[in-house]
Design a protein that fits this description.
Fumarate Reductase Iron-sulfur Protein, Chain B, domain 2, 2 strands
Length: about 230
């Protein structure tokens, strides 16, 4: 007797083939929980309020926070990686966080998951990650934000041309509407880079904290200081 190409003559157990999960990561939930935003993932009870309220899910049904949290808690890393190219699409509207009855902070979990994917080398840094880093670097080093330098840094990192049509229109509109004194201040800030008075000690403390935090995150994911698996 042949059943779908398998000979089951006299051996009724032969058609029950073993199914081995090779992509299981028993520490996956712990790894996500170790990253900023993922701390409360263990509270999820799969009610689906996050996905039901999600702005992105309304446009792209494949964007499903409830399902990804489910995969993370089960440790199904391979299944999660199938959607690695859309997890980062979270727009941080926080509708899911407001709707969640268990204070899971699904928006934070999505950010932690995107960060996990990048740290593990499964995805390249997204444009939003580059923007966050340029923004943070300015705040940490200067204590202030200078918008033109922020945009230039972001465009340089993401290999985009500086003169973009929308940006030209924006600058022209600002020049027409803003007072000359304010425009002069913006120009001086672009040239001399503003800095919060007495920021040196605060900057050093922040840099130390960031270094420690990144080291803790890499250790929790089983990575060394260079990001390679231990």
């Amino acid at each position: 007797m042949n059943l779908e190409g398998v000979d089951v003559s006299g051996h009724w157990s032969t058609f029950i083939e073993s199914r081995v999960i090779t992509d299981y990561n028993e520490r996956l939930e712990e790894e996500i929980a170790a990253l900023a935003g993922g701390e409360n993932i263990h509270r999820c009870w799969q009610c689906g309020s996050c996905t039901n309220s999600c702005t992105v899910n309304a446009i792209n049904p494949e964007f499903n926070p409830r399902f990804w949290i489910y995969l993370i808690r089960l440790g199904l890393e391979g299944e999660l990686l199938r959607d690695k190219d859309i997890v980062w699409q979270c727009v941080s509207c926080n509708k899911c966080t407001y709707a969640c009855p268990r204070d899971v902070n699904p928006e934070g979990v999505m950010k932690a998951t995107a960060h996990w994917l990048e740290l593990k080398g499964h995805t390249a840094k997204t444009p939003s990650m580059h923007f966050d880093e340029v923004f943070s670097d300015q705040v940490f080093s200067r204590g202030k934000i200078e918008e033109s330098r922020l945009m230039r840094g972001f465009f340089a990192r993401t290999k985009q041309p500086l003169l973009q049509d929308w940006l030209v229109v924006l600058v022209k509109g600002l020049v027409r509407r803003l007072p000359l004194t304010l425009l002069a201040k913006l120009g001086l800030a672009a040239l001399f880079r503003p800095r919060t008075r007495g920021w040196g000690r605060a900057s050093a403390a922040i840099a130390e904290y960031v270094t420690e935090r990144k080291s803790e995150e890499r250790a929790a994911l089983g990575l060394d200081d260079k990001g390679a698996a231990r």
